[in-house]
Task: structure prediction
Amino acid sequence: MERIIFGDNQFFAVNHISDEKAMAQSIRFKEDAAIIHTLDTARNAGIETFMCTTHERIGNICDIVREQPDKYRGYKMYPCMPYAHKYANAVTELGVTGTLKKFVPGNFFGSMFKGGVAFLSKDYLSIMELLVDSEMKMFKGIDTPVIFLQNVITDLLLGMQMNEVLVAFHEYINKKYNAEAGFITMNMPRLLDALEAGGVKNPIICSSINKVGFRMSGGRELYENTLKTRQFRAIAMQVLAGGAVPAREAIEYVCTLPGIESILFGASSKVNIQETVSLIHQYDKKIFTS
Amino acid sequence: MVKTGIIGIGKMGISHLAILGAHKDVTVAGVCDTSKMMLDAIEKYSPFPCFTDYRKMLDTAKPDAVVVAVPTKFHATMVSELLDRNIHVFVEKPFCLKADEAPALIEKARAKKLVNQVGYHNKFIGTFREVKRMVKAGAIGEIYHFHGQSYGPVVVKTKQESWRTNPEEGGGCLMDYASHIIDLINDILSPVEKVNSSQLKSIFSREVDDAVYAMMELRNKVSGILSVNWSDDTFRKMSTSITLNGSKGKIISDANELKIYFKEKEVPEGYSTGWNVKYVTDLTEPVDYYLRGEEYTAQLDYFVQSVKGTRPNLINTFESAALTDKAISMIRKAQS
Result:
């Protein structure tokens, strides 16, 4: 994984500290061209990986990336699934069977055998696989070396102690997509325990890691110890803790922690993107030379 | 360990189950639902005992405490039966479908000294707690007006049917959505005493209200406006906010961001004259397990600690939730 990964919250009105800012972002990124423009700004700053939810608008972004293979040579996307609202809305509107019908890839009747049988026999892992396939449809032809399970689902399964399902996701991504599975979580140490217990070695885990301990369940100290003493590939997100920590301080903190492979951040403006990237390089260099 | 059962694994029930499953002081003694689809998945992949009949779960698993997350129309009977069996109860909001069902339950819980809590999670959100602290300290002087608002994208087109769209079962924007902000106003300011006028509008639903607008007066004589709409898809998810005008300042707060304006030189510690902005990041206590928001874990942890007897059960009691049920029925009656 690259050291810096670009996130997508700003494109879809996800703002953890202000509803007003969320609305402003939703206005700003109404057109796909605005998203592409920001992604290109990030690419110009050297960020060649985009981690994105399987929001339907990402489908349009994938189209644009596919249409310009020369421009986007080497560009990687890390899908995060599912975009939960999509399913929640569909279940309310169409029911569970209707939802499966809508999201099972290709012609429902064509894949009726797997879909229909899985549904009737309540073979939940097969249903999970079908849903993964449907989420992955939009990324066809795009380089997706890591595929993530989104945090609400990861943490829900974790709380319900459904470790087997987490492991099954890991295995399926490996087998079907020749990619690595990643997990986004707000409960990193607990998730690592569960994955290791299920036999998953050196998993990719993306979690909040910041100086003020925001959304670091179990506390900052436990996270720091886990990073120091355990074997996994950590991605730090929410490093600014929603704006609670000034950029320089925030980046210094994550860059000096051991065991963090990548840093995920999202921003809208060129200035913020460039500043964050240069801070990361600056502190990485400092650690390297000291 | 608190042996805890859960009845109902719909949207809220599943979330509660995961939080209980991760809680260090809880043993999940039983999970009950009548819908087999979800229950089978839990039976297959989780270690929790599953039941389709809640009485059987109570007889077999013998829980000390139970979380009730079923449609509102079942609350009163189920809660009553749980109290009869000396079981501590956490029930989802709103508390009762009819306001007159509450007094007997309040009395029973009191007489039997059982922990009783209702799932109004906003009270466990740092920003709203700080608003209450400021109001109680008189920081913005005498409050003369409030504006409680809640918007979100629940019913955004016709043809969506579930118990939430059935008035007989406790569905509708007033019961399901507006109840949150009403409860917050009751708690932060004073209970709703009079509803001057109200409008319940159906936008996409045939049977229930999708929006609620009301002019209200509180016990302490402060008056204000309620404005709630669950058919507003310009919001990505539910957004609840409260604005308070006082003689010495103003407060605008939602779940993420608190803005306070102080007119005068004298201000509470940590604040200054003019506008102040604080974020949930500054005001929220961390939790041991996080799912969708610290407040969901915090409220269940509060319940568990109350059952263990390590702290008194004062927040979101049946009694406080009954005041919200009462306000809901007043809003319904005051329709112009």
Notes: DSSP finds ten helices and 14 strands in chain B.
